Amino acid sequence: MKKIIAITFAGALTLAGCNSVTTPTPTTTAVVNIATQVEEATVAACKFLPAATTVATIISASPSVMTATQIAQLICSAVSKKAASRGASLPTLSLGGKRVVVEGKFVR
């Protein structure tokens, strides 16, 4: 009987290692939340929806911790209708010595 229980227990432990579902870490969840907040704040402030890659780059390049509203203000200051017109250079930000191209689109 002990042998059967031991084999069953060993099999259960073996299968437990097959679990491939990953649980988001608090850090991953926090970054997604702040990115969503930045997008919403930017659209509300200047009707511009920044690309997710732009938001992620700004968050990682920023020399200090900023709120979603502060990041949205930076993005809005970098974009304008003129920058979106044909032939204009892409708007950029300079953060911590890094040049960040602001990509996205104006929305209604």
Explain the overall architecture.
Strand 2 and strand 3 form a beta hairpin. The chain has 108 residues and is of the alpha+beta class. It has one domain (25-106). Helices cover 56% and strands 13% of the residues.
Short overview:
Helices cover 56% and strands 13% of the residues. It is α+β, with helices and mostly antiparallel strands and 108 residues long. It has a two-stranded antiparallel ribbon.
Give the SSE layout.
Elements: H1 2-16, H2 26-46, E1 48-50, H3 52-61, H4 68-78, H5 81-84, E2 92-95, E3 98-101, E4 104-106
Antiparallel strand pairs: 1-4, 2-3
Helix pairs in contact: 2-3, 2-4
Sketch the major β-sheet: 2 strands, antiparallel
How many structural units, i.e. domains?
Answer: 1
The unreliable regions are: 1-13
Gross morphology: globular
The protein's oligomeric status is: single chain
Widest sheet: strand order?
1-4
Mean pLDDT: 77
Termini separation: 71 Å
Strand content: 5-15%
Task: Determine the structural class based on helices, strands and strand pairing.
Answer: alpha+beta
Please trace the helix and strand order, writing H or E for each element: HHEHHHEEE
Helix content: 55-70%
Tell how many strands the DSSP assignment holds: 4
